[in-house]
């Protein structure tokens, strides 16, 4: 039977990247790390057989890492490069953890154990983060580091909405070296849907040496999604509805309030998702409820990510009811099966999922790019 490629999973959270990597006969995670105690507990509860280090990535050395991995995955903290955050960039404390990860990759190379494939997953804000006069400096720094280490580097912007009823665009920087390059699917230039205008613009800003080492990784367009938000929600009778739902709806701007009124007037059951946002109107900051009835949830975030907990709005029987999204529903929106063990606290479960990567997105990347690139190692035992 084939030998499964091995992977390290850094900034692993609850291990959702590993679920996507390891689907069926995929890539086997042999080491994982995260410094957050709650996320570490979730990882160990759901992946008890995977060696796990709880602590700062800067506290690791190459000697702490087992074997010679085929792949290294890093979902480094995104707050400092998020479009919803303060945009401190990779020099800021949290996102600067990437350089702690990269120090380990350099150490593995010094010991002739460098992975053939490296994946960095982050928010799309990485494409433009940096000082006002240096748009995209952080993206260029990451790609430059990979290219100087001898990797061919490329990136894809993949939205979970292709697979799940959640709008969640994320950036995947993929670096490949050695024999893996011969099998990694590439295109002669950018192509939809994963090479977006934002990515193409960011590529154009890269130094020439990085563009010379660039690859337009090729993934096929996924089949049309046939799952919507309503299909993932708990039954109405099983959840707690807000007594002050009308007060929440009163925060909606006229356009969004009109959407609710139209849904109620339709006479059909309609399910929507909503977030509270702070908007500037007439020079004043006001809190607004933004609502969508397109079958998608908004991007799951944590409270520290600049947004509040997501609401569910159900219009049926001539009225609109409001409740908060549950942790289990958030997990489903990330492609996680119901047997996944969530933290007991709803807020902890929502934080775990809001900081994670969607499982079907990782699975598609694995099946269509990462496993083909690693196929030279997959020989019969």
What is the beta-strand fraction?
A: 15-25%
Q: What's the mean pLDDT score?
A: 90
- Rg calculated over all Cα atoms: 21 Å
Distance between the first and last residues' Cα: 5 Å
CATH homologous group name of the largest domain: Vaccinia Virus protein VP39
Poorly predicted segments:
78-90
Query: Order of strands across the widest beta sheet?
Result: 3-2-1-4-5-7-6
Total number of helices: 12
CATH fold name of the largest domain, please?
Answer: Rossmann fold
What CATH first level of the largest domain would be assigned?
Answer: Alpha Beta
Largest sheet geometry: 7 strands, mixed
Write down how many β-strands occur, each being a DSSP E stretch of 2 or more residues: 13
CATH architecture tag of the largest domain: 3-Layer(aba) Sandwich
Structural class: alpha/beta
- Form type: globular
The amount of helix comes to: 25-40%
How many structural domains? Answer: 2
Briefly summarize what is shown.
The protein is an alpha/beta fold and 381 residues long. 28% of the residues lie in helices and 20% in strands. The protein folds into two domains: 6-223 and 357-377, 3-Layer(aba) Sandwich (Rossmann fold), CATH 3.40.50; 235-325, no CATH class.
């Amino acid at each position: 039977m084939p030998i499964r490629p091995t992977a390290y999973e850094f900034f692993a959270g609850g291990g959702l990247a590993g679920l996507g990597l390891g689907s069926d006969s995929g890539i086997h995670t042999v080491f994982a790390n995260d410094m957050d105690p709650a996320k570490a507990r979730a990882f160990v509860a759901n992946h008890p057989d995977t060696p796990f280090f709880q602590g700062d990535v800067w506290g690791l050395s190459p000697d702490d890492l087992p074997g010679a991995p085929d792949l290294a995955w890093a979902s480094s903290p995104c707050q400092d490069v998020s479009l919803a955050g303060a945009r401190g960039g990779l020099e800021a404390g949290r996102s600067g953890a990437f350089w702690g990860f990269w120090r380990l990759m350099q150490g593995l190379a010094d010991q002739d154990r460098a992975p053939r494939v490296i994946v960095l997953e982050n928010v799309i804000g990485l494409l433009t983060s940096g000082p006002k006069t240096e748009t995209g400096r952080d993206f260029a720094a990451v790609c430059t580091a990979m290219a100087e280490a001898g990797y061919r580097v490329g990136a894809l912007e993949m939205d979970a909405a292709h697979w799940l009823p959640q709008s969640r665009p994320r950036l995947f920087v993929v670096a490949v070296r050695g024999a893996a390059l011969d099998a990694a699917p590439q295109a002669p230039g950018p192509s939809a849907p994963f090479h977006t205008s934002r990515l193409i613009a960011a590529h154009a800003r890269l130094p020439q040496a990085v563009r010379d080492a660039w690859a337009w990784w090729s993934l096929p367009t996924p089949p049309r999604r046939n799952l919507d938000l309503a299909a993932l929600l708990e039954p109405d009778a099983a959840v707690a509805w807000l007594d002050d739902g009308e007060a929440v709806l009163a925060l909606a701007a006229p356009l969004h309030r009109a959407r609710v009124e139209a849904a109620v007037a339709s006479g059909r059951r309609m399910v929507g998702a909503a977030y509270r946002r702070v908007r500037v109107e007439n020079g004043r900051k006001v809190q607004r409820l933004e609502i969508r009835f397109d079958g998608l949830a908004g991007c799951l975030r944590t409270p520290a990510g600049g947004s509040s907990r997501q609401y569910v709005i159900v219009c049926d029987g001539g009225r609109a009811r409001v409740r908060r999204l549950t942790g289990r529903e958030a997990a489903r929106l990330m492609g996680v099966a119901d047997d996944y063990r969530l933290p007991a606290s709803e807020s902890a479960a929502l934080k775990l999922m809001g900081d994670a990567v969607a499982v079907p997105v990782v699975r598609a990347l694995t099946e269509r790019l990462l496993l083909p690139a690693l196929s030279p190692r997959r020989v019969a035992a």
